[in-house]
Amino acid sequence: MKNGREVVIAGVGLTRFNSYDGQKDDRPYKEYYDLGSEAILDALENAGMAWTDIEAAFCGSVYCGTASGHQTIEKVGMTGIPIVNVENACSSGSSAFRLAYQMIAAGVYDIVIAAGFEKMPRGFIQSTSWPEWQRLMGFNVQPASYAMQTVRYMEETGATEEDFARVTVKNRKNGALNPKARLQKPVTVEEVLASRMIAKPLRLLNACPLADGGSAVILCSKDKLKSKAKTVTVAASVLTSGTYGHTYGGGSVKIKKQDTINYSADMAWNTAGLGPEDVDVVQAYDTMSSGELWDLEELGFCGKGEAPRLLREGHFDLNGKLPVNTDGGLMSRGHPLGATALAQIIEIYRQLRDEAGSRQVSGAKVGLAHAMGAGPNSGIVILKR
Amino acid sequence: MKNGREVVIAGVGLTRFNSYDGQKDDRPYKEYYDLGSEAILDALENAGMAWTDIEAAFCGSVYCGTASGHQTIEKVGMTGIPIVNVENACSSGSSAFRLAYQMIAAGVYDIVIAAGFEKMPRGFIQSTSWPEWQRLMGFNVQPASYAMQTVRYMEETGATEEDFARVTVKNRKNGALNPKARLQKPVTVEEVLASRMIAKPLRLLNACPLADGGSAVILCSKDKLKSKAKTVTVAASVLTSGTYGHTYGGGSVKIKKQDTINYSADMAWNTAGLGPEDVDVVQAYDTMSSGELWDLEELGFCGKGEAPRLLREGHFDLNGKLPVNTDGGLMSRGHPLGATALAQIIEIYRQLRDEAGSRQVSGAKVGLAHAMGAGPNSGIVILKR
Asked: From the CA of A363, how many Å to the nearest CA of chain B?
């Protein structure tokens, strides 16, 4: 099927990303379903809709346990609608968004909510999602596998630890302008380089902070939307899995994780009928700050190895040619897995509606959000106004 | 959108449901991804398809951890297709099946796989999926909440512990004919009534056994199917959530879980344009044996409180008027959460193709499978040949 009906975002909701552990006054205790339902009610208000308008719900989460979307929606109202819980690691939100998009585009439903939420586990988070041989080699924690990819990236491109520090500095600077971000204090290159080594060459301040949060996006068929003021259209919503490893019955073997990004990016550009040159604002995937650099390259925003230089030249700054992670990215906003990808999409939506306040990218018309998840899986959303 | 394109099942795959803990010769050690990939390869062979024919995968699981579908498919071949992991408790398989069905019916894809797999946790399984007030009251384990519903059912209908024992006896008798079942030995009413009390009035042999397993169903648009011999068509695939509890912005309050089944059943009959009288074989939801009785009533196969008498009269036996749980049901086949609902669908498929061997229901043309999940959510699939 070609793209089908035009799908727009009718409303969005987002909690502050924070550590909701009840340990400090500004960190009240909240469960994932408190955060998820808060975001859903926020989105309904933003869209000017009632809960009974919603025909189906796709809920993204990773660590919340059984039937978490139902638990969350129980706080909003049980109306009998189909609720599907989606677990696609860091791309859970993109995956939930994409199901909502596909269903509306294909005419199955008119109005669907995609919600994401997470109360992050505390302590050592061991990923079960790597192939067995990689786990045996100690790749079952995120920084370890990112460190390997980062070393390779340094060797191939000449990127330095200072370049990765600059990603953190840029994103923390943007995050300081975002009242919803987990961390709202800027840092310097020196502070990043002086922070504790986690997995060489990556340091503590190269890693995104732990945060809990909720996010929600209401998608709607354009012809069913009552108010059409400043509509934001979904130009593409793409989800791919890895293209490396053996293939049953033959097939090529690829080994770099980046190939997956490139593959999904090609698909997204084709679907949208747009190219990197059309994009005004990007939310890239910066779970570790080095990743943002190769992400921008693999998405096609610059050539391989060019991102560190462009970053140094201010190209990706808020007032640069292509502002990246305008809300602070994972690095500053924080990374509650199920809520992250929808938060990225919400930031693009706000930018395209001129609602981003002090971090507004002037005249932004097209934006892209990318979340890379374990598996691997890659979710890209392109919005246009 | 009305039903859309005709969707058929092109092939199915199923492992033996067993305890794959490596503790006995007939219980080799297997991980969930071993079981899931075995079922997928089995389904491909059954459909006469190559893995590269599959355009998307929806994978149902509950306890497998992050990106479990990707881990499973990594053993089959990473071809870049969208993989979405679905967690809808005991209805995870129905939910994965339904997404595949909706996408094909709406023209998004032509060939999609729905897979389910589970390696069940050992020891005490605490459900996180009940509302907080229910958990505080000790309802966070399945037998406790079923016991409450069972007591109510007894009071309303006059059903007895002997009736629940008869459900177990029937299903274990059917399971003895199913080489894929976890338990393949029949039991007597006396044995059930002499088994250990778990949550009054439910005993050990009123509960389904722990089992690991994998299941997979390949769905296809009918016009794309090469071989049309003995095609089985999806007449309905329905998923609903609860209709009880408070509703944001007003709405009615209902309190019995059974209402959810009734609601989804009405939707399924309407979608299929069929009624209970058209059905030749049923896979009902018997996680605790008492549940099968009210399930059959709420699905519309008999009036409220009539199921115990019909059961006593042999109505639901393999050679009765409406054979129920012909493969042994959860009670005998076992209940690996993510794999269960697709196993139910596979049994209906086999029955409608006259491939059920010694448990074949002669001339079966229409069958229904129902899985009830926490949340609550209810998934019904009606197949017809």
From this structure: 33
